[in-house]
Amino acid sequence: MMFLPVEEQAAKRSRGKLDSIIFDLDGTLWNSVDTVLLAWNSILKKQEKQQLSREDLEATMGLQMNEISRKLFPALSESERGQLVKECSEVENVFLAKQGGRLYENVEQVLEKLSQRYRLYIVSNCQEGYIEAFYKYHDLEKYFGDFENPGRTGLSKGGNINLVIERNNLSSPVYVGDTEGDLKAAKFAGIPFVYASFGFGQVNEYDEAIDSFEDLLKIFR
User: Fold this and answer.
1) What is the dihedral of CA 137, 139, 145, 151, to 10 degrees?
2) What is the pLDDT of residues 32-70, one digit of tens each?
3) Residues forming beta bridges with residue 172, ordered by sequence position
4) What is the mean pLDDT of residues 88-100?
5) Where are any strands of DSSP class E within 28-145?
6) Sign of CA dihedral 163, 121, 205, 127
7) What count of other Cβ atoms lies within 10 Å of the Cβ of residue 181?
8) pTM value?
9) 3-state SS of the chain: helix, strand, coil percent to 5?
10) Rounded (10°) angle between helices 6-14 and 180-189
């Protein structure tokens, strides 16, 4: 699929009235670290490998799986890391579908209100099945029109944002996220960035910032 240059995308989209909001997942809609930690440590325990801490996982938020594997398991070979992360991710999806994560305060109420005025989407740097597990446990799929992740496409977050934009014919979307990587992805796609300061990252450049998820209702009226 061919995309317009970023400058042309931004110019084209800025002319239209805001029609859609694309969300990051971790650090924006929920915090799944505790459940993910249980899942990954269950595999590491079976393989008699060192257990991970909550801080270990929090330090990987926003990264793609190959980056996470290098950061968490630097002593392993690339093939060993790939196999280990694959096993951990599969078990993680099972745990999340059964136990969920911690939604940020008033997420569903805010999504319900926003969905009456805007089209909503998710683009996250996660494995295939992760967003589906989020939907399943928290019953939030009804608010979203589409989602994407590198586990399905192999694309960067910016590439996946563009894919969702093109696939759904969005004319003026924004991206809501919590990390520097989210900012870069929004810039890549040529769309405004809303920084969720309550998440995992520190971002100094943004179009708007929110201190709570409910603050979105102040921006998108």
Assistant:
1) 0
2) 999 999 999 999 999 999 999 999 999 898 788 889 999
3) none
4) 96
5) 30-31, 102-103, 119-123
6) negative
7) 21
8) 0.89
9) 50, 15, 35
10) 80
